[in-house]
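Lay summary

Proteins are chains of building blocks that fold into shapes. Our project writes down both the chain and a compact code for its shape. Here are two examples, one after the other.
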Amino acid sequence: MGGSVEMRSRTGAGTEVEVMLRFPIARQPAGTGEGAAFDGTIGVVAARPAPTIEQAERERTLVLIVDDHPINRMVLARQVRALGYACEVAQDGLVALDLWSGDRFGLVVTDCNMPELSGYQLTRHIRAAEERHGHARTPIIACTANALGGEAERCLAEGMDDYLSKPVELARLAEKLNRWLPLPEAPLTHAPAVMRAALSRFEPLDRAVVEEISAGNPVVAREVLVRFHRYNSEDAQRLRGAVSSGDFDRVCEAAHRIRGSSRTVGASDLAIACERMEAAAGKGDWDAVAQAMEDFDREVGRMDRHISGLAAA
């Protein structure tokens, strides 16, 4: 294929393998729509295996992941470990604040909108405690589904240092970790970009997202999707209950929760349906909520059938 393979090894650090292949850039045929587009990804190579929690504490590279959705926590934790870091997880800001209080973590990745204590409130508490006790500043990276809606600017204004958009791409996460918490004598490296085809818009899941989450392991991919299916079914019931009771606030909360986890696993159509519902509920437009609910039910049905087929394969 006219390519090359280069290997670099270092005792105690591991081996980096760089594969370079030349591919023609595919162009979108006229009239095929977004589903036939191509995009690029960056392969990321970890310079070491993830250390133990104790080792990470000693070198101050332990990462705290905060998110109220179990799928988001699981995926982020897998990504962080794949990049050579150890991590602990918290399901809300209150738990995260309790974990952080010992000054154990080198970096925090937090969702912005959570019950009990939001990512914004968590950041304010951490910054106040740092000033009160003389701790070094802990880098805080927001993980938001609304980076283009002004939330990114708010994250920085609230005292966070950076932000990531959901779904979190492994290459982007590597870039942020390497910037704010570089590994000692083992920087992360990026392999050359390669072109890959996006899935057809008629499939409810972007396989490329799932493959990145699972590092190409079909057993891990199946586990992620089965868990997503279970948690999503529970969240969908909460959403339907909120719609039935006419509670706009609960509709917004449930739709936002499902939207975030859907984007994490590449279920973009389901996420779009949730985004429409969240916007309609925020405006108090019940007709628009009802219409969005029809779209939501249709996408949930497609997703359920798709994941059930994968699980049975």
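And here is the second example, written the same way.
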Amino acid sequence: GGGLWSSAPFSMINSTVSANRGNGGGGISAQGQTAHLTYTTIASNTGIGLFLSASTAAQLRATLLAGNNTNCALFGGATLTSNNDNLSSDATCTTLTASNDLTNTNPLLRPLAFASPFDFTPTHLPMPHSPALNRIPPARCISTDQRNVARPQNGACDVGAVEMAVWRSYAPITRKP
């Protein structure tokens, strides 16, 4: 794994794994244990975004996979289970079939960057019309995102590590005589 290689059980919450390179898993490579990914973004890695092998059992919830050479690959008895609200930009994460999962869907992400001068960690912000925005009912939200921004914003939570606050501005309307 270019970003993370693990042969021990692990949980990842509110994390972005991006711009890594690996021979198998460019983002995450897990072997022979359990892995729990919650509100995580695995994007723009060279190689496989999530590589599972040797009987690994992984569970994904509100996780976004996009822009990797391949998003998911399972070998050696590995299993991938959806706990709902996931989004994959390709069709390789075949077990993401829960009611609020989306596969083969472009999440319309911005490049990896700091969202504001006050952020302490870079993220892939969703663009304004991203299908990752406002997908998750408040009852399934966690309290903050990777940057410690409150969830939900705008009435529902976003898929992945970052919650997007949508700012609306209103211009006064004037009548011309």
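What can we say about the second shape? The chain has a mean pLDDT of 93.
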